[in-house]
Amino acid sequence: MFGFEAAELAAARTVRPAYQPLRHWLEGSPRELMETRRRQAELFFRRIGITFAVYGDPDAAERLIPFDIVPRILAREEWTALEAGLKQRVGALNAFLADIYGKQEILRAGLVPPELVLLNPAFAMSQIGKRPVGDIWVQIAGIDLVRTDANQFFVLEDNARTPSGVSYMLENREVMLKLVPELFANLHVAPVEAYPEKLLETLHSVAPPGAGDEPNSVLLTPGQHNSAFYEHSFLADKLGIELVEGNDLFVRDDVVYMRTTEGPQRVDVIYRRLDDDFLDPLAFNPASMLGVPGLMSAYAAGNVTLANAVGTGVADDKAIYSYMPEIVKFYTGEEPLLSNVPTHRCREPEALAYVLDHLPELVVKEVDGSGGYGMLVGPHAPRATIEAFAAKLRAAPEKFIAQPTLALSTCPTLCDSGVAPRHVDLRPFVLTGTNGVQIVPGGLTRVALESGSLVVNSSQGGGTKDTWVLDD
């Protein structure tokens, strides 16, 4: 049978109650069957073209993200608590963005250093005084969560610009329904299939005034060479909207139009998967060939909605992240329901001294980094790498934060040797529109496939799992 490894069986008391039905299924599944299902999953993903590009790797321009057929399971009461914390946090993020581009009360109160915001490369000076529909800046948020061995969830980072990965959440569920229908027959797994419908409702709710009952939304992609192009195409298809590139759109009299075979068609909402700097060569990077000349003029005139809004990248910054407990309390008047990972701001001399003295014990990240790049995992790094990072910290401490290496919880994962524990994180997707806040149960679970590894990013060799919230 293809059950837990001996070490897992010896620690049976640590298996969470929600996992007991899964454990019985695993222990009753022949190894050959599990291997066959793993191959079937890979064939399914390969057939439908679920790939991602790895920048700077000419030998692996397109890869399949490894998929683990052992689901990650959350009990309904766990999810209910997470959902409340996610709504609180994303609400505070929207209030923070509305404030820093408005009255800047949190800066005047001294709770967040003004230079961290006003000198941030992602801060869009052009948006000061602007108000998107409903004062909603982040319509789609991806909040990365980790759980420790002490069974407490922490927010690892906030993704408020162009969060990715939801297509894998949806496709992972589809393949699991095909491969293990017997599990779904016996367990009450909360569905995620309504996400595209909820996303379209959110986009339509923030359409400009006068757009009518059926706003025209499009998904703007950088093109097929982007690492997430599969997701862009997948989502456009699921939403029933056009997938467009910059040259498919044009602006006339501060109104955005899409070129069609039947003539120009007005566009009301753009779900953009393009960073600010490339949106409009007349307003940002003049060398950009990916954006739409004049788009920002139409946006400023209130004739088109961009989701997410321009300037939301400030909230992705890991130095700003370190102030999220203060931000949540300032705007909600409540204590945060979800805690941050304790964070050392290397820009502060005392924190820098501590980090330099404890580098082999810490995880160090670039404040504007993503995808697992530009980070140091001290306990797993060779001495030379640690010394090189120390030099980077001394040269530009303001570019880094550091965190302890938490005792992260693990989930059972199918490996060559059997079902073994591997570290995971979770990215739920939070939708915010004038119609309210919506979250489908679960999210994207990413898994570090190497034994002992803490890096789950697909660009760094991680894989994904389906995430099940059980209703009973």
TrEMBL record:
InterPro entries hit by this protein: ATP-dep_Glu-Cys_Ligase-2 (IPR051680), CP_ATPgrasp_2 (IPR025841), UCP005522 (IPR016450)
Q: Name one Pfam family in it.
A: CP_ATPgrasp_2
Source domain of life: Bacteria
Gene3D superfamilies (UniProt xref)? 3.30.1490.270, 3.40.50.11290
Q: Where is the Circularly permuted ATP-grasp type domain?
A: 71-448
Bilayer-crossing regions = none
**PANTHER family, per database record:** BLR5612 PROTEIN (PTHR34595), SLL1039 PROTEIN (PTHR34595:SF7)
Q: What name appears for this protein in its UniProt entry?
A: Circularly permuted type 2 ATP-grasp protein
Organism name: Glacieibacterium arshaanense
